[in-house]
Every structure is written in C-alpha cells, then in structure tokens.
Amino acid sequence: MTLSALIFILVAGGLLAWMADRRRPGSAKWVALATAGIEFLLTIWLWLQPAGALAFPPHGGWLAETRAEWIPRFGVSFHLAMDETSLILVMLTAFLGMVSVACSWTEIQERAGFFYFNLLWTLAGAVGVFLALDLFLFFFFWELMLVPMYFLIAIWGHENRRYASIKFFIFAEGSGLFMLVAILALVFVHYRSTGILTFDYFELLNTAMSPSTGLWIMLGFFIAFAVKTPIVPLHVWLPDAHTEAPTAGSVILAGVLLKTGAYGLLRFVVPLFPDAALQFAPVAMALGATGVLYGAFLAFAQTDLKRLVAYTSVSHLGFVVLGIFAWNPWSLGGAVMQMIAHGISTGALFVIAGILQERTHTRDMRRFEGLWSVMPRLAATGLFFAIATLGLPGMGNFVGEFLILMGLYRASSVLASVAAVAFVASVVYALALVQKTFHGENTHGWQLPDLSGREMATLYTMAAITLWLGLYPQPVLDAAPDIASRPPAIAAAHGEENTE
Amino acid sequence: MNPLPSAPYSNLMALSPLILLAGSAVVVMLAAAFYRHPRPVMMLTLAGLALSFASLFLPRGIGSRQATALLVLDTYALFFIGLIFAATFVVAMLCYRYFGGSESRHEALYILLLLAALGGGTLVASSHFVSFLLGLELLSISLFALIAYPRFTERPLEAGIKYLILAGFSSGLLLFGMALVYAQLGTMQFAKIGTMLAGPHQALELYGMAGLALIVAGVAFKLALVPFHMWTPDVYEGAPAPITALVATVSKGAMLALLLRYFLMAGAHQSQSIAFALSLVAVMTILAGNLLALLQDNIKRILAYSSIAQLGYLLVGFLAFGAMGAEAVAYYLAAYFVTMLGAFGVVTVLSEGAPKQDSDLLADYAGLFWRRPWLAGVFTAMLLSLAGIPLTMGFIGKFYVLAAAISASLWLPVIVLVIGSAISLYYYLRIIAAMYASDSNTDHDKKISPAVPASLAESITLAALTGLLIGLGIYPSLLIPPLEAMAAQVAELAQYPILAYVPWNANDSKS
User: Fold this and answer.
1) How high is the pLDDT of residue B306?
2) Which residues in chain A are closer than 8 Å to B406, comparing Cβ atoms?
3) Residue B68 CA to its chain's centroid (Å)
4) Would you list the DSSP string of A466-487?
5) Cβ distance A114 to A84 under 8 Å?
6) CA-CA distance, B351 to B358, in Å (whole number)?
7) Which residues in chain A have their CB less than 8 angstroms from residue B503's CB?
8) For residue B304, which of B318, B287, B292 has the smallest C-alpha distance?
9) B485 has a chain A CB within 8 A of its CB
10) For chain B, which ranges sit under pLDDT 50?
C-alpha cells in the first residue's frame, strides 16, 4: 500500500496543483512543495522502519511489496517492490522534487499550475520506474515520465527549446521501443520454455535461453538504458535537453532521469541476462570509460554554464556504468553512491546556473567573471559544489568514484587507469568553471543581489548532504552490496570475472 | 462448411442489426422527404444507429451464426459491426453543426451515412464474394456522395472524383480476382474455398493465385497500403472533416476485418508468397507513411499519412494470423477508431468558424492550448495515442500488435514498426509543439477564424472519446475478454490447423 501511495501522492498532487492554480493563481507551488515534502517524509519513514519488520520471506532483501492483477490476459500485474537501492533512489527523487519546486519558486510565473503538474508527474513516473517489478509496468512508467518532461522543456525551456525537447523525446521514446520489443521477446522465450505467460520480474529471472538470443534481447534493454544513462555514442540528446530545460527540468533530468537508466542496468540488464551481460561487460565498460574521458574533455571546452554541467554528467555517469559492469561489492557500492552524490551535486550546480540565469539572463561564462565580489554566498557554494564534482575527499562524489575505481581495478586494471585520468580532467573543468565565473575582476559591472533565504536553504541543505555522504557513506553503501549477493546465480557468474 | 439449415426466423433475428439499420435508412429517407428539417432527421438517424447497436446484443443467445450462405454473424462480425455503428454514430454527431446545423438542408447526408454503415456492416459479416461486393459497393457509393457533399466547393468535389475513379478501379480489380478464384475452384464461399485448399495436394494454381493477388490489391486500394496509397492524402484533405473521419475509420476498418476473415476462412495465408508479399507491403507502408508525413504542413494530410502508417502497423498484427493476430487487430482497430474519430473531431470543431476551408494548416493550431485548452488537450491525447504513448489505447494496441508479431517471430516487420514509430514521433510532436507554443499571441488571433465554441453534443462526444481512450488505455482488461472469445471463435471457424502457428491457445485452455 505504501508503495502505491508513493506514486499516487505525486499523481494526485500534480492534479491538485493544476486545479489549485486555476482557482487561486500562485498557490500551485505551495501544493507542489507540500506534495514533494510528504513524499520525502514518507520515504524517511520507510527508511527508519526496522529492516525486519517489512521484509517478506520469498525474496530476501526486499523491504515492501504490492501486487495486484492488471491485465491477466498477458500475465501483467501491478507489481511494486522496494529494496534498499530503490528506497534510496526514491528518496533522492523526492528530495530533488522539493529542490526543483524551490528553484522554480520565482522563475516560473506563467502557467504555473500546468508546470507543477508536469513536474510532479515526471517524478511520479520516475518513482514508478524505481519501484516497478513487472516489466510491462516498468515500461509503462518509463514511457510515461517522458511526456511531462517533454512539456517541461518545450513550454518553459530556453531559446532553443523546441529542438531540444523533440530531440530528447525521440531519443528516449525510440530507444524505449527497442526495449519493448526486447521485453516481449524475453517474455515469449520464457513462455516457450515454461508455458507461463508473465511479465513478472521474479519469474523472468533465470529464463533459459541460448547465448545469442540472450545477447540480442539484452542489447534491446541496453540501448534504452544507454540512451537514458547516457552512454557515449547515445548521449547526444543530453547536452541540448539539459541546457534548454528550465532549472527544475535540468535538476530532475540530471538528478533523477539519468538515474533511471543506470538503475535499469543495475536492476534488469545484469540480473536478467547474467551471461550475456558478462559477455558484453568489456564493451560496456569500454564505452563507460570513453564516456568518462569524453564528457570531461568536452565539459572543459564549453562556454555555456549549463552545457558544461551537462557534460560533467556524461562523465560521472560513465563511472556509474563502469561500476555496474565491473559488478563486485565495491564497484556496486560506488555506483550507487555516485548516483546519489551526482544527483545532489549536479542538481546544485544546475540550481546555481539557474539562479545566475534568472538574474543575468545569460549562461555564457565569458560574460560573468568576478562574481565573487558581487555575490559571495553564491560564489562560495559554487566553489563548494565544483570541488565536490571534481571528487575532493570528504564529499560524496569522492567516495563513489574511489570505490568504483577500486572495484574496477579488480575487473580490468587498464580501464581503471584510463578512468583515473578523468580525475585530472575533472579538476581542470571544475576549476575552470570557478575561475571563469567567480574569480577575477568584475569587468562587466554586474550588480546582483546575493542568495535569498529560500535559495540559501536549498543550497546549504544540498551542501550538508554532500558532506554527510562523504563523511559517513555507510548507510548508502549498505544499500548496494545486497544486490551483488542476489540472486546467487549472478554473483557466481561474476565471481569468475572478478578473479581474472 | 455447410451453412446451417436454420429456420428463417432465427436468421432474421441474427440479421436484425443490419435489417434494423436498413429500415432506419428508409425511415430517415421518408422523414426527410416529408419534413425537411435536419434536426429531427439527425435524431432519427442516431436513434436508428442506437437501436441497431442495441440489437447486436440480441442474437448472441440464439447461437445462429451462418445466416444464409452470404452472411455470417458470429461474435467477430458483431464486434466489428458494433465498432462501425458506434463510429457512424459519432460521425453523425459531428456532422450536424459542421454542415450548418438547423439552417442548412443537409438531411440527405444522414441517409448516406446510414447506408455507409450498412455497407460496412455487410462487409464484416460477409462470408461470400457476393456479399463482399455488395457491402463494398454500398459503402463506396455512399462515400463518393459524402465526400463531395459540399458540392459547390472545389476541394471536396476534386476529392470525390478522385475517390470515385480509384474506388471504381479497385472494385474492378476485386471483381476480376474473384472471377479467377471462382474459375479455379468453382465456389464463392470463403469457407468452401478454405475446405478445398485444406485438402491434401490442393493449392491455388496460377489462376487462383493471380485471383488472390488481385483481391489483395483491390483491398489494398481501400486500405491505402503502400503502392496503392496515392489517393489518401488528397481525399483526406479535400473531404469535409467528419467525412474524413468516416473514410479513415469505417471504410478502412471494415475492409481490414473482411480481409482478415477471408484469409482465415479461405486459408489464404498458407500461401507463402502472399504472406511474403503482405509483409513487404507492411514494411513499405510503415516506412512510406511515416516518411511522407514528415514533409506535410497540413494537419489533415499529416493524419492521412499517419493513418497509412497505422494501417501498416495493423498489417503487422494481421500477419501474425491465428487467434492472437485477430485479437491484436481487433484491439488495435478499436484504438484506431477512437483515436481517428477524436482527432478529426477536433479538426471538425475547429473548422466550424471557417466557411471556405477546414482549419487544417499547422498555423491554425499555433498556441491552441492557451486559447482552447480542452480542445488542445483532447487533440494531444489523440496524437499521443497515435504515437503509442502509455495511458492511451494506442499504447496497448501497439503492445498487442508487437506481442502478436513477436509470438509469430516476425522480426523484420517488428523492427520496421519500431523504426517507423520513432520517425512518427517527429510529426506528432510538431503538431503538439505548435499547439503549446506560447509565442503566437495577439496578431495570430486575428488571422485565425473566429473561434466557435464546441456545441454540447460535440463536447460530450469528444469527452467520451477521450474518456474511452484513457480508460481503456489504463485498464484494457475491460475490452480484452470479449476480444479473446471472439478471436478464439474466428480461429476455430478456420478449416485447417492455424492453431499450430500460435502456441498461445494451449495456455488459455490451461489457465
């Protein structure tokens, strides 16, 4: 019940925000903030539950489960379940939901009701993706979160919004269709061998199939997740979408939507196709390492602040892909950590970019310079998150990247050394960002108000979380190794890889 | 299969939907002759359609399926007759204000609508070449007149003549094909053709094959499958918007249902070459429809190419054959009906302020969401359904078709379907992006024809269609059980082991 509530609160909140704004303009943001807040409190409550109280026997490690018949004809059920990883990602979603409402507070003036409706529905779709354990349901949410996101970019985006939104939608939706075909192929392979038509995750685990079939079906899933994550040759939609989206859209895109791709790799690609994934792992890891370097180098070359941050996402998510395909407790812990830490730190950088754009109406870093003297608080938080992004010890990102490299070294020392180069590149782009934007003389004569109370509350909370993740990462790390040991078949399959 | 020697009475009962509809066409004609006011005539039309629709639920208990050698009224026929009558009902609702409401004399339109529905109903129930041709001509001839109904305007006339010539041509092909099949086999009953071909060492010879190919070509004209699709955009653009909806739904849906029945009963799909040709046609239809739609700036033309592509998707489900294929086709057609009626319904409502020409340019839709949010919302839902996005029937339909095709291992059509759908997103999003664009403010409003608010009937119709679209998109299980029963029945009707194609049924009997 709680799990359905996690989705329906957001759905209902979105409708309520839209209606409220028709009655009383300006009330939508309060409704949206309350909705995201309730969602967040609910996840905290779930987090605080003693693990034994909610766990149910058949599939160890799951905290809660809901199941109801939906389309019996196809063996589709409304099946939600939550383990530690989903819980922590839903928490991240709810938290970034509050952040994105807060950072749209004054930015969104026109059609606010419809804006918050779309925002909350995107979040609802993402929460659904993190919780669904029926492949049909998963696909349903996967596609569903795209439509409101499309509207967020297309209506409230910046100059080039039409192009960016259509590109985003076609990439995400087109790749999703390949996943649909792969899901159906998997289901029918399962049907032919067992005579049971089902879309249930647990039933489809350990489906027997020939290696080549497994590889093809896995590739169908992989394409969809690779577009979303993004993995390098399929990342081209990302810089445009992130740059043109309104601040809240960028925060949700970077913080939540990219995580759905990585989560898909973690939850579906490897567990459903352990053999094919093992076979494919070298390619995927090579692509991940390419992404790490490519994103970092392109980030350095950008002059558009949001575009720079967007490319850092490509780099950081490359680490996540490496961590997932190395598949050992260290790298997986690191991958989950990196997902959370990246969500917070990149989200914060987008919030900062949004604040600057709202005040200066530009994102061009060549026009900033010397903002430290004008807005010291903003500049200080900018510096803080820039060094968090480059992976300074003591911040969450460091823990994630360090653990990934440690785990990766056991799988492939070459790739680990290649990925480690990115630490240098990320220092370069992060410091370049700080220097170009905040240091130097205020040659353009900017006169801008510093952070308001609302903005301070948002950014300082995010900074505190980044520090907490860096100094006491254990709660997040606890969420991950669980996966490595379950189901046993996969751990065994990857045991071989680890010994190489 | 021998026609059941059923009593005339139960035959009449079984045929009651078609008889009632024919009767109401006569009543409406008489009413229009003596009392020339559109409103009562429209009311009578709607009542006739509703009555015939209600009578669909009668014959089921009697169990008589084969009513005369010509028509078979099984659940398959009843489902599609229901769909056609419901679609005609919606079109009639949309026509009233579009054609001028109570001030214009457009009573004859309703008679034609009823006849078109009757033709469609005959088509989906026919099990014999004679009833096939009869239904087809009834439908086509009503459509010529309907398309060219605003006879003082240029574009509808042009469209009507185009349709007349091509429909005549395709009927000619069909007739010739039927004659060739008859020449080889000496029967015109679908079931008998099937029985003959199912016998050992029996197959269509050259004549029969040529005949089958000609029949498929003739039907492909009506369905606007790719090498025979040229007429569609022009006719869609020229015809009055509600009539376009009728052409897109009733005419195409009835033809496809008939073709599927013919293939299943007469065993045509066992011919490898025909199956191969059809999958080639499906691939070309999907690609050509979607690619050509990218080039259009006119909403009706975009929808025309989109409907070509949609028929291509349907054909992929069709190629799966067997119970699963029939089920997928039936669901997808239902989704397609709702979606196309809704989309052209919006075009109809928007066109009411424009006497000369329908509001069908992309520019007419710029910023629509901020001027008329409900209409734009309905249109968005319809376009998303065409694109196959969740929460809509279109998504479930596409899922169904893909499931059927994958269970039959039709990989090439499946991949093309996926690519086609990805391409199609662009032109649907173009329309959506235009509707939600905020930069078209005051100066545009003057150019755009004065907005006529939707009448109550139109609002209810569009709301009902949207409700259906989303309701059955979220909870398709309401529609699936009857479809499942229907598909099982139509697969049973076939005289040869098509069940071997689909291992699907084994499961159903178990569970």
Assistant:
1) 94
2) 181, 184-185, 188
3) 26
4) HHHHHH--HHHHHHTHHHHTSS
5) no
6) 5
7) 191-192
8) B292
9) no
10) 1-5, 442-446, 495-511
